[in-house]
Design a protein that fits this description.
12-stranded mixed β-sheet, 10% strand
Length: 874
């Protein structure tokens, strides 16, 4: 292959540069390594710039300043040669030449001066640096000026004569350049073929023609330019080409479209309504019940047995934390488990996740038989209830009310957290049913308005009227209103009713909670103070009773003992002591009496002391034993209270873990639900877009397409399971939800990449030569759908050179014309069948691209044979 550099001169040529590069890149087969294309523009200050138009900063590195311009240009072309023609990849040129093709519109003369400078620089480098170049000039005639001018059509129309004159002058000067350089090749192109039929060129069609010419130059340069000798009086080449191709990208795009529609319809993305009762029965009631009251289950089954073993808090937490994490992960997995169930559509799965989280969804229809189905938050209710009940107890105790942290809801009387949750659920379900009914009636109203807009002159009464509601009918408020409207049997009736809040418990709950539902905190109905009455508190003791208590204490301190307490008085018994005393000897009565009295007094003193000592000791021992028993009882009570405190602390810690995880999981699942809902809506819009993007048969301009809708449909119907097998949107969305626009693009890329891998092996086996020459049929293209001879005749017609010629007598133009069919074929094949289908048999040359066949006409013309050169206005 030949190393090739395209340089496009002139303003507004960037779309052409980008289109040619894209065409060559899509050709694959390794040609990208041999091709480079640049745009050259100049500013008013004559600073030139070679750009690759890739939108990167490297575009601006090839700047040509007006000072030292010649030297800079010489250095630039020398650098281009050294970058492309390397020792490890020299290309197929015998002299290691770089092929440079300058492309320029001729309707303005500025590019001519630039071209001359380039040719002089290339000539200098070739002569002094001793590296070779093959230079072609591809010129666009004045009738192609509209592709490169930004002026309005009426302005261009006024400039047509001027453009023709300038174009003729530029072409003649370029022809003069060829006389100084025999190796220079000039190709001239118009927006017409040889017979004057318009090519109807656009940026896209011109890019494809120039891109195909680039491939021919890279792969078959010598075949194009050196197979015939051209005299000096025929300096201009006219090129014509037509391509018969099977474009893999176009076929893959259509099969991708059909495959995506199949995938979307397989998961019923277009489903507009979902039966809420089906979701509750088949999903919610199967997923959530095993995980309800997880906190209580964990505590009773795992924590309590460990507490009985007297394990401390650190040991208990180390033992139960893995179980808690496993339980929470199991809940999360279960909440997404139904995504793998192919019996549910994608909208049903999105709606099921909404219902699990306790949310309403616009696609829900119908009523739930069980008004209080479980929701995700119910799994954590016992953990929340632990804190709520503790806070409620604090709020009801005057001494500790200040420690309550949750606000109270005035006017709401609930007995427990569970009761409040049930009332909230009941309110939410009522709101959901009414919302569902309103959505239904709104759709009916939209349909009615649509019918009216198509031609009905119905009268609209925008007045208001009263609505009579039968509250005992069992229907919701919105249903009653709708029924009343329907019974009026008028064409269109509008109403307005100011709804008054009913004095009911539900209204007070909603008012207390405010607008919307609090998801993280739920306020119990509690009063900070209770009324002080005889039912709540014991009557205080009377002052007399207090005085008697003080008297009692005083008596106890004096070692007096109360035996019995009567209503009006205290009866106190004090022990008495009797002592017998004997006096021996004679003594006068007074002495005896004195001795006896003294003895008695001494005895009494001794006995009294002994008795008192014994009595005090016995009292001390009794009191000490009582104190020790009391201390033991208090110690046990303190230990019990401390243990209870540890249990409460541990229970609060574990409940806190569950509440934290509840918030995290709820946020994660809410986001996933939102992302899936957003993606489902995008998929619905995408399906509508795919239905409108029906591929059309045929090609563009000189490019005949063998990609036929009928063949691809037949192939897809046969290979549907092969193409779409294993591709399920719910798996992609479950494993990694793609949100936002970039995420949706990633989703398409995932599908496109997977399908491309599956189709590559099928498309790689295709060969235009086998199809045309050998009559081979493929799953996606058969001879039943294609008339080969007719398509080859079309190629012959479309390949007329892109230049209007004069009919001159005795012209020998055919002697200097080439007609070549480039097709990928075995070396021992000559393509005889294909040649027979053309009026003038072409030479058949091998081509590197098995999916296409290119018919090329190349004619060397004199100026007199070119119609535009003989125009008096030129």
């Amino acid at each position: 292959m030949r190393h090739t550099l395209f340089v496009v001169l002139g303003e507004n040529t960037e779309p052409l540069v980008l289109g040619i590069r894209e065409y060559v890149d899509n050709a694959k087969m390794g040609v990208g390594a041999y091709f480079r294309i640049l745009q050259y523009t100049e500013s008013d200050s004559q600073i030139g710039l070679f750009k690759e138009c890739r939108g990167t900063a490297i575009d601006d590195l090839n700047e040509i300043d007006k000072d030292g311009r010649t030297a800079l240009l010489c250095d630039f072309f020398e650098k281009c040669h050294r970058l492309q023609v390397t020792a490890d990849n020299p290309g197929d040129s015998p002299v290691k030449a770089l092929h440079i093709c300058f492309i320029l519109p001729t309707h303005e003369s500025r590019s001519l001066g630039q071209l001359k400078e380039f040719l002089d620089a290339i000539a200098y480098v070739s002569a002094n640096v001793h590296i070779k170049f093959h230079v072609d000039l591809f010129l666009f005639a004045s009738d192609m000026a509209f592709l490169f001018e930004s002026s309005a059509e009426d302005v261009l129309a006024k400039k047509k004569v001027e453009f023709r004159k300038t174009s003729g002058k530029v072409i003649r000067e370029i022809v003069g350049l060829k006389k100084k350089n025999d190796d220079l090749s000039i190709i001239l192109m118009q927006n017409s073929n040889a017979k004057g039929a318009s090519l109807n060129l656009t940026h896209r069609s011109l890019s494809k023609i120039m891109g195909e010419y680039a491939l021919l130059a890279i792969c078959n340069y010598d075949t194009l330019f050196t197979s015939i000798m051209v005299p000096e009086d025929r300096p201009i080449y006219a090129l014509g080409l037509a391509v018969l191709e099977f474009r893999e990208d176009k076929a893959a795009k259509e099969i991708l479209r059909q495959a995506c529609l199949e995938i979307l319809d397989r998961e019923n993305v277009a489903q507009k309504e979902v039966d809420v009762n089906k979701i509750v029965t088949n999903v919610v009631k199967k997923v959530l019940p095993p995980h309800l009251r997880m906190f209580s289950q964990i505590f009773e089954k795992l924590v309590v047995p460990l507490l009985e073993k007297k394990m401390n808090q650190e040991q208990i937490m180390a033992a139960v934390t893995p179980e808690i994490n496993e339980k929470l992960n199991s809940l999360k997995t279960k909440c997404l488990s139904f995504f793998d169930d192919n019996t549910y559509s994608l909208p049903e799965k999105e709606a099921a996740l909404s219902k699990l989280l306790g949310n309403d969804d616009p696609i829900f229809v119908g009523n739930v038989f069980d008004r209080h189905p479980p929701v995700f938050e119910d799994c954590f209710d016992d953990a929340v209830e632990f804190y709520m009940n503790a806070d409620s107890k604090l709020s009801k105790d005057e001494d500790f009310a200040e420690y309550a942290v949750l606000p109270t809801a005035e006017g709401v009387d609930v007995t427990s957290f569970g009761d409040l949750r049930e009332m909230i659920k009941d309110s939410e379900e009522t709101i959901r049913q009414e919302s569902s009914h309103i959505r239904k009636k709104t759709r009916e109203l939209d349909e009615t308005n649509s019918l009216l807009a198509k031609g009905s002159d119905g009268e609209v009464d925008d007045g208001s009227y009263e609505v009579n509601l039968d509250r005992d009918s069992g229907m919701t408020r919105s249903e009653l209103i709708s029924q009343d409207i329907e019974e009026k049997k008028q064409n269109i009736e509008a109403f307005r009713e100011l709804r008054k809040s009913a004095d009911s418990l539900r209204e007070r709950i909603i008012q207390a909670l405010g607008d919307g539902r609090a998801r993280d905190k739920i306020c119990l109905g509690m009063q900070k103070k209770l009324k002080k009455d005889k039912e709540c508190f014991e009557a205080e003791k009377a002052e007399k009773e207090k005085e008697r208590r003080e008297v009692l204490d005083e008596i106890e301190r004096k070692r007096r003992f109360v035996i019995k307490r009567f209503v009006l008085s205290w009866l106190i018994y004090i022990m008495a002591m009797a002592i017998a005393c004997v006096v021996n000897g004679s003594a006068d009565p007074l002495t005896s009496k004195f001795a006896i009295v003294t003895y008695v007094m001494a005895g009494i003193s001794v006995l009294s002391f002994s008795f008192i000592l014994h009595k005090i000791k016995r009292e001390w021992e009794t009191t000490d034993e009582d104190y020790r028993s009391a201390i033991n009882r208090l110690a046990k009570k303190i230990d019990s209270i401390s243990r209870e405190k540890e249990v409460v602390k541990l229970k609060g810690h574990i409940a806190g873990i569950f509440i934290d995880q509840r918030n995290m999981l709820s946020t994660e699942l809410e986001k996933k639900c939102f992302d899936i809902r957003d993606m489902v809506n995008r998929l619905k819009n995408w399906r509508s877009t795919l239905l409108s993007q029906v591929m059309s048969d045929g090609g563009v301009g000189q490019f005949i397409s063998l990609v036929l809708k009928s063949g691809l449909e037949c192939f897809f119907n046969k290979q549907k399971d092969f193409v779409t097998g294993g591709l399920f949107l719910h798996k992609i969305l479950r494993d990694g939800v793609f949100a936002e626009d970039s995420g949706f693009a990633k989703l398409l890329d995932v599908l496109r990449l997977d399908l491309s891998k599956k189709l590559k092996s099928r498309f790689d086996e295709f060969s235009v030569f086998q199809f045309l020459e050998k009559g081979k049929d493929y799953d996606y293209l058969s001879h039943r759908d294609v008339d080969v001879k007719r398509e080859l005749c079309r190629m012959d017609e479309l390949s007329e050179v892109f230049l209007i010629k004069r009919d001159l007598a005795n012209s020998d133009a055919l002697d200097y014309a080439k007609k070549i069919l480039f097709i990928s074929k075995p070396q021992d094949e000559n393509g005889e069948y294909c040649r027979e289908c053309f009026l003038e048999k072409p030479n058949v040359e091998n081509y590197q691209f098995p999916h296409k066949a290119t018919l090329v006409r190349f004619e060397a013309l004199s100026e007199n044979e070119i119609a535009m050169m003989g125009d008096e206005n030129v």
